[in-house]
Design goal:
The chain has 23 helices and 2 strands. Among the domains are: about 90 residues, no CATH class; about 70 residues, no CATH class; about 80 residues, no CATH class. By secondary structure, the chain is mostly helical.
Amino acid sequence: MQKSKLLAVLRTFSPSEWSRLDAFLHSPYFNRRTDVCALFEYLRAQAQQGFPAAGLEKAAVWEALFPEEQADATRLNHLNNWLLQLVETFLSIERYREQEPAVRDNLLQVYLERDLHKHFHFQWRKSRRQLAEQPADDLASYRQRYLLWERREAWVARRNERKYNEALQRANDYLDQYYFARKARYLSEMLDMQQFITGHYRLSMLAEVRAALRAAGELPPLLRVYDKLLDLFDQQGSERAFNRLLEAWRAHLPAFSPADAKRLLYHAINFCVYRINQGERRYAHALQALYEEGIQTGILLENGLLSPWTFKNVGRLGLGGKQYEGVEYVVLTDSDRLPEREKGDALHYNLADVYYHQQQYDPAMDHLKQVEYTDVHYHLGAKVMLLKIYFEKGEEEAFWSLLSALRVFLRRDGSVARNVKRAYSNFAIWSGRIFRMRPEDAEPFRRKLDATRAVNDRSWLLQQIERKGAGKSGS
């Protein structure tokens, strides 16, 4: 049973969830099978011991449940499947109970179907009042408003009265808000992604959504910001459109859910990253300010913790501005805000980066040796940093050995996204070419590198071309 779907689900349960599942399984409304309860009790005992492998052998499970009977693998598999189905039902009910608007909406439908008009009106007014007290301006609230008036419209339609139906108009208007907000979100995500990947999305109804938003007049806050975001993409990233987006985002920030606030901030961050990658270094200051704003307000924190990649990007920005002491201080102090599992790798990798940028190669390599590669991107980043150190020190044998290892890793590892793999592969190709480059090849190399679309660390490669072209062998 060690690799069963049931065990995979149960391993995620908290102590309180085990207790609630116990009550659920012992309720005759949901389950009347005592053997299912027996299997649950056995697995719960195993969970309290950390799921030891010996206790999860099918023979051990059967012996514990049916000591007087001959082993029957088919029966045990069926029992396992019945428990899994009940666990899935339990999880669905748990999620349903957490979603109060869905509970209210289902109750409205029940009262409508049973022609309980008095109950329907009481629940409808209660739901409307609760929705009005909900401050968030997000897709969920748009959907809830639409469904609330959709139920009202269904009640009015049952009366067959030929007169103006306010509920019909309201349902239509709120459906528009919900639809265009969700559509604008998808389109924005695709437009954003296309700045960094080689694939191409089909941007269906982009022009229609843009026209609808322009014609809508007064927009709710979330749609207003998405309108500015689509403007930014439409105007090919003008600085004026970028500033209008930030102005709208900050003005309506208190109304947004944490998820929407973070999503919209990352769109602005990605815009800055893209412009910097295009050589517009003036956006580095804006990017650093956005990161700092996101951390200080908690928008970029998840349960009070900082993403290792945000942590890394903030450091890289400071290093790009040669703020070495400041970045080292941030790395040492803010690493406590990282998730425990990534803390060690993030600390050592980013300290290595600080020392590398100061050309303190020995301490940089000491920290790289302590990176345990909890994530493939640390693995790649550490190899590239070490490769750059060997290049700049002119250590030919170590450089070519590591370059070969990097190429093998990129070829064999299936966990690296295709566009990321291409960028690192091109870096490997170009770093090898530049290592052997003659000074007179500098200009043609620079032109060819500029024409190469996806290259990791392009600015460093161009810097090495310039140095080689000037007859220098390293830093």
